[in-house]
Amino acid sequence: LFSTATSHSVSGQEMDSTLLKKEEAFKKEKTRHSRFTKGTYFIGGDLSLNDTEGYNDYVVANIDLLDVNKAGIVMSFVGGYFISPVTSVGIRGTYKYARNEQLLEADFLNLAFNATTYQTQVLNTGFELHVFMRNYFPFGEKGNFFAFSETSVYFIKNNNYQRATRNPGQTDESISTIMAVTNGLGAGTSFGLSYFNTKHLAFEFQLGTTGLEILWKDIEKDLVDEGQSRLVTFKNGMNLLRFQVGVTYYFKNGIMFTGK
Description:
By secondary structure, this protein is mostly beta strands. It is built from 2 helices and 11 strands, in the order αββββαβββββββ. Strands 1-3-4-5-6-7-8-11 form an 8-stranded antiparallel barrel. The longest helix is centred in the N-terminal third of the chain and has 31 residues, at 2-32. It is elongated.
């Protein structure tokens, strides 16, 4: 009888040990792909520049495009905080600047504007600020890849200035000026991919936001107020040829590192 009871006791201990190992293995498997814990926070951004100058001498509808000067910059930042191992909240902002100047020659316009050489100038500046929530979906054996969806509400501000002058470099007389200021609110979803190259650093690829926008535009033409217009529009950000590439740093204090 003593021997039988001992055997049963050993069997019970082995069963408890097996269940404990299975539970630990389940937890390990569940967190193996979860690189984040509640309290993980991150910052990141990207910067792109473009500056091109060109000289052209070709005729399109009797217009010679003599010179083109373009410059642009796009800066973005992102910061967030994980409220669970698969969900983060944060802010994301983007600043854009673009300038486009063209020097034209058109003899047939001499009758209308008493000049054959003209310059057009277009200046665009804009800013967007998103408040977002992201959901992460790990994939891959090493846990280095994460797809994510981002739902956000955001504020938009754009300024567009256009000016046409005749006899540039000489009299530089203004023919027409247009100033358009756009403010707006939007809500939508975007999708992205994070790849962890190191324990702390990730490269992120993100498409534009798809959703609804309400825009208010004020237009002033030749110093005369043309009034305000309101537009509700659908924005499609699912263009695979236009996406942001940035670098994001995840801080160690709240991160669960796996893989490399």
